[in-house]
Amino acid sequence: KNQRVCHVAVQLEMGSLWEEFNRLGTEMIVTKAGRRMFPTFQVKLSGLDPLADYVLLMDFVPLDDKRYRWGPGHLRPKMDEWAIVSFDKLKLTNNLLDDNGHIILNSMHRYQPRFHVVFVDPRRDSERFAHENFKSFSFPETQFMAVTAYQNHRITQLKIASNPFAKGFRDCEPEAW
Amino acid sequence: KNQRVCHVAVQLEMGSLWEEFNRLGTEMIVTKAGRRMFPTFQVKLSGLDPLADYVLLMDFVPLDDKRYRWGPGHLRPKMDEWAIVSFDKLKLTNNLLDDNGHIILNSMHRYQPRFHVVFVDPRRDSERFAHENFKSFSFPETQFMAVTAYQNHRITQLKIASNPFAKGFRDCEPEAW
DNA sequence: CCCTTTTCACCTAGGTGGTAAGAT
DNA sequence: ATCTTACCACCTAGGTGAAAAGGG
Question: What is the CATH number of the domain that holds B138?
Answer without folding.
Answer: 2.60.40.820
